[in-house]
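Need residues for this backbone.
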């Protein structure tokens, strides 16, 4: 059996405001206080319904970007892994 990926960073349910209760379908990744990515269960994209979308989000110290900075994973853990790997590449590029 393949090893199960262990998340490196903290992920918490997204809550945009008091009228937006958090769900198990939308998460933001944090490295300490710095948010770096969002993953969401895709319910609307043609040919992607049922997959998990990951997006890199604004990181103040990033001056050079790496593409792609978004994509899809088969499940939440896969999307988190892809987002974390992208973030780690950004940290390496910027000497962090």
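Answer:
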């Amino acid at each position: 059996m393949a090893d199960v990926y262990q998340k490196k960073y903290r992920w918490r349910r997204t809550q945009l405001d008091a009228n937006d209760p958090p769900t198990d379908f939308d998460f933001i990744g944090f490295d300490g206080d710095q948010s770096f990515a969002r993953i969401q269960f895709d319910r609307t994209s043609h040919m992607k319904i049922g997959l998990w979308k990951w997006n890199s989000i604004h990181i103040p110290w990033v001056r050079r970007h790496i593409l792609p900075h978004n994509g899809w994973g088969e499940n939440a853990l896969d999307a988190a892994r892809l987002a974390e790997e992208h973030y780690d590449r950004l940290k390496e590029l910027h000497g962090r």
